[in-house]
Amino acid sequence: MDRQRFDALLAFLEVIDRLKSVYRAAYIADGSRHESVAEHVWHACMFALLLHGELERDVDLARTIELLLVHDLVEVFAGDAPLHDEAARAGKAAAEAAAAERLFGLLPGDLSARLRDLWEEFETAATPEARFANELDRLQAIAQNLFAGGRTWEDWEVTEELARTRNRAAIGFEPELAEAFEEVFLRARRLGLFWPHPEC
User: Fold this and answer.
1) Whole-prediction pTM value?
2) Which of 33, 64, 70, 108 is the most buried (most CB within 10 A)?
């Protein structure tokens, strides 16, 4: 292995370790703390691994997992912009584009181009795999709210209608996962997790 190239890869891997310390609005299931971006990515990959075989969907699982692994890497520099924080999301695209330039520029040219292409493929949802990855990214986030007892929806006063509206694009890509989204919404509604809570 080329020593200079290996040094660049190792340096990149050290930088992206910071994802373990970038936190999202969502909570882990026991509600004790916020979920890190790295945990979200791992969980979304597990969603892909488990749900891929349950669907009649002609998508490449390995490619989908590659897209999920890369899709939030730019948050190393850009941070996370919570879905329900409109002010934070206003500059999200520009901040993430700048972060992508900086982050992927740390890699040798071929790998820089490969990861940049994966990130852009996810962002544009231009392929079946990218649409599937986008769906799973949102499904994990909604399910995580269910697992954590609706803490994020409570923090941001999110109604079911608002949750559906803000996730409509991902839910509407393909029909195969619509049933899974509906099941998560149904369980959250039955538990009274959306804002306002039944006791309010």
Assistant:
1) 0.95
2) 64
